[in-house]
Design brief:
About 30% of the residues lie in helices and about 25% in strands. With about 110 residues, it is of the alpha+beta class. The chain has a single domain, classed as Yope Regulator, Chain: A. Strands 1-2-3-4-6-5 form a six-stranded antiparallel beta sheet. A hairpin with a 6-residue loop joins strand 5 and strand 6. InterPro entries: TfoX_N (IPR007076). It comes from Candidatus Dactylopiibacterium carminicum.
Length: about 110
């Protein structure tokens, strides 16, 4: 089951205050970016935050599960998604620990 736009909008609303947030539809699901870093996946209308050392420490006893078959386990945020302040802080902490995205290569001109 693919995630729907309404749920992705809800996740953005819940994460308000975390910084530069955006979602992008990808393969029927959504990717959540914070400050241009991939911090979470939205799959089957569930949120899976990338696990980092600081994020795990902040999250406490949040269970881990793969976002899709074959994926590495991520923090499954189902039960805490309604806690806006907690969720926004988790995303800020996660983004701070992740490396900067690699610069995009320019495409070679045609002609």
């Amino acid at each position: 089951m693919a995630s729907d736009q309404g749920f992705a909008d809800y996740v953005l609303e819940q994460a308000e205050g975390a910084g530069g947030l955006r979602v992008r539809r990808m393969f029927g699901e959504y990717v959540l970016y914070c400050d241009d870093k991939v911090v979470a996946l939205i799959c089957d209308n569930r949120v899976f935050v990338k696990p980092t050392v600081a994020g795990r420490a902040w999250a406490g006893d949040v269970p881990e599960a793969p976002a899709y078959p074959g994926a590495r386990p991520s923090l499954a945020i189902d039960a805490r998604l309604d806690d806006r302040a907690w969720f926004a802080e988790l995303l800020r902490i996660t983004a701070a620990e992740l490396p900067e995205p690699a610069p995009r290569r320019k495409r070679a001109g045609r002609g």
